[in-house]
Specification:
- This protein has 356 residues and is an alpha/beta fold.
- It is 39% helix and 17% strand.
- The protein has 13 helices and 15 strands.
- A seven-stranded mixed β-sheet has the order 2-8-7-6-5-3-4, sandwiched between helices. A four-stranded antiparallel β-sheet has the order 9-10-15-12, covered by helices on one side.
- Helix 8 links the parallel strand 6 and strand 7.
- Helix 2 packs antiparallel against helix 9 and helix 3 runs parallel beside helix 9.
- The longest helix has 21 residues.
- It is globular and about 65 Å long.
- The two termini are 24 Å apart.
- It binds pyridoxal-5'-phosphate.
- The site of pyridoxal-5'-phosphate has 12 residues, from helix 4.
- Pyridoxal-5'-phosphate binds next to helix 4.
Length: 356
């Protein structure tokens, strides 16, 4: 089979990444000989449980949380749903007001719409031209019935980092909890759960050369959440369902590979980013957005000077694949909500996201 990656430069890693061969290798035995159910009381079950515990310890050690705080899920979407709905249900006596921002991922926004339709109160914060929220605005938006603030650590379309630590300090001073979607931050910047101070944190394996279909929710000790699924009581009763051992093992290995060689990874990504930006700017094709703000090195937002993004990507489709600021929903291509929030009408169709 022809390896498409050898023919085409894949520059859409914020959407998903190719699994690392070394990750796949450590997963394989758990599909085959070591197929036991981690909840079974026999040797095969024990081996699966051991592998899951090892992965849990590995991930926790790199992300600064306690292994007991880490709940395995099917990915960030599930973690976000469990974190928000589960928190709200468990804390319903304290209030039902949630604060977020309109540039969050759809997994957050659609969960909030769902809750709003069921009587919750949702407020959206203002943000600057980079999408960064203002602490003053947050302060004045918190009310007596506010229970949760939901803000992503890194935006998936712009790469911009939100000041989550400061936001959390402010929120905690007012008795409000914080959930951060760290899906685009894990493996791109150092993430330390304890240091950030947040109460809930979500992420996925497939953005860092791990397998698709596995993620985690970190729940700070003492934070109450109600499960979405009821069943065998796995993950301290918070996420029932037979453990997907191979995916969990792959998740741990992906995190280990990335963070054990993080300096080299960053050096490589920064070098590639600089070359890409130089190419666009020197050739007069486009300019980099969000240049002077704290952001991850792997997501580059380019504003084309002449072409429409769709046309540009089609013209270059034999050389590389990247993404426009458009999302395909039910086969209708529309400008993404993040791009609509951050750019004026004339620019919206000219944004290309390159992610390495
Ligand atoms: N949050 C962010 C910021 C993302 O980029 C993504 C992936 O596109 C998700 C959530 C959803 O992740 P998953 O595909 O693991 O459900």
């Amino acid at each position: 089979m022809v390896n498409i990656l050898e023919e085409l430069k894949y520059l859409d890693n914020a959407a998903t990444t190719r699994i690392d061969n070394r990750v796949l290798e450590v997963m394989m035995p758990y599909f085959l000989d070591l197929f036991g159910n981690a909840s079974s009381n026999h040797k095969l079950g024990d081996l699966a449980k051991k592998a899951i515990d090892q992965s849990r310890s590995l991930i926790s050690s790199y992300l600064g949380c306690n292994p007991k705080e880490l709940i395995f899920t099917s990915g960030a979407t599930e973690s976000i749903n469990l974190g928000i709905k589960g928190f709200l249900e468990a804390n319903s006596l304290k209030g039902n007001h949630i604060i977020s921002v309109r540039t969050e991922h759809k997994a957050v926004l659609n969960t909030l719409d769902y809750l709003e339709a069921r009587g919750c109160e949702i407020s959206y914060l203002e943000f600057d031209e980079n999408g960064v929220v203002s602490l003053d605005n947050l302060d004045s938006t918190i009310k007596n019935n506010t229970v949760l603030i939901v803000l992503m650590l890194v935006n998936n379309e712009t790469g911009v980092i939100q000041p989550i630590k400061k936001i959390t300090e402010l929120a905690h001073n007012k008795g409000v909890s914080v959930l951060t979607d760290a899906t685009q931050a894990i493996g791109k910047i150092d993430v330390d759960f304890e240091e950030l101070g947040v109460d809930l944190m979500c992420f996925s394996a497939h953005k860092i050369n791990g397998p698709k279909g596995v993620g985690a929710l970190v729940v700070k000790k003492g934070t109450e959440i109600t499960p979405l699924f009821h069943g065998g009581g796995q993950e301290y009763g918070l996420r029932s369902g037979t453990y997907n051992t191979p995916l969990i093992v792959g998740f741990g290995e992906a995190i280990r590979l990335r963070y054990s060689d993080f300096t080299n990874y960053l050096k490589n990504v920064r070098e590639r980013r600089d070359k890409i930006v130089e190419y666009f700017e020197h050739q007069g094709i486009g300019v980099e957005n969000f240049k002077y703000v704290n952001k991850v090195p792997n997501i580059i937002s380019i504003q084309l000077l002449h072409d429409e993004a769709e046309d540009f990507l089609i013209t270059n489709s034999t050389r590389f694949v990247a993404s426009t600021g458009s999302a395909c929903n039910s086969n209708i291509i529309e400008v993404s909500h993040v791009i609509k929030e951050l750019f004026n009408k004339d620019s919206q169709g000219k944004i290309v996201r390159i992610s390495i």
